[in-house]
Amino acid sequence: MRVVRTIAQLRAELSGCPPVALVPTMGNLHDGHLSLVRLARQHAGAVVASIFVNRLQFLPHEDFAEYPRTFERDCELLAATGCDIVFAPTEAEIYPEPQDYKVAPPPALADILEGVVRPGFFTGVCTVVLKLFNLVQPATAIFGKKDYQQRLVVHKMVRQLALPIEIIAAETVREETGLARSSRNSYLSDAQHVEAARLHVVLQEAVDEIRAGSREWAALERRALVALSAHGWRPDYVAVRKRADLSVPCADAPLVILAAAKLGRTRLIDNIEI
Ligand code: PAF
To answer: Which of 13, 78, 113, 265 is most buried when burial is the number of CB atoms within 10 A of its CB?
Structure first.
């Protein structure tokens, strides 16, 4: 596995390379990321993982500075999982001048749910992802379903801008308790880690009710919010939405239930397709 830091090195490594599958990450890798790398392996001749903590997608009060940088360990894990190239640029390499040109995804998709609590987040994500796509020119890119809205926003960007890239959605990897693997789980204390499993449990209970025939979205969402709050969580949202565009369900359509909530200082998100 080669580790490249500059765009020039990346281009040199990629020339003559078989079709690439890209796994974009911000590092602090866990089993969820490694499952993306394994999936990438099945879809392309070469796997590139990027590690870049993208300042553009953090609000001023968020955890950009303290976001765990675990580069050596990340590289060991990637090498052991069959990654060919790690692209780990500096900020100056990706943003050599202020990034005035940005990709603004449509408000109907980007200013709801995560976009309400994290305004500008998806503009930051789309801008860096488009830049990574331009640099790596992958045939395929893998995004985890845990970040459900992110995957959808990127998928639609690729479609509407006619980028020649197949976006593959990877299933969420969970701990035995059901807790979705996330880089931010490392912020949790031991006691919080145990409690964190409740997010998935509460979503699963709502899913069970929907599968049993309930269509009272508002009541279901309210019950889930109350169940979280009763155990010390500060929920941002629990929402039943259409999978296709995250709009409020009006007729029978494939659904997803999504949630975001803070436990102590740690903000966790999760979702289940119904
Ligand atoms: O999901 C992430 O880790 C980030 O949002 C991504 C896609 C790497 C863009 O910075």
So the answer is: 78
The verdict on domain 183-268 having CATH code 3.30.1300.10 is yes
Class of domain 2-170: alpha beta
What is the value of pTM for the model shown?
0.95
* 1-49 tens-digit pLDDT: 999 999 999 999 999 899 999 999 999 999 999 999 999 999 999 999 9
Q: Which residues pair with 169 in a beta bridge?
A: 143
Cα of 56 to ligand 1 centre, how many Å? 11
Q: What confidence category does residue 250 fall into, taking pLDDT thresholds of 50, 70 and 90?
A: confident
Query: 120: closest CA among 100, 102, 146, 147?
Result: 102
Q: Confidence class of residue 70 from pLDDT cuts 50, 70 and 90?
A: very high
Element counts in the chain: helices (H) and strands (E): 11, 9
CA-based R_g, the chain, Å: 19
To test the ligand 1 pocket, which listed residue (36, 52, 63, 125) has its Cβ within 8 A of the most ligand atoms? 125
User: Ligand 1 atom 9: the closest Cα is on which residue?
Assistant: 125
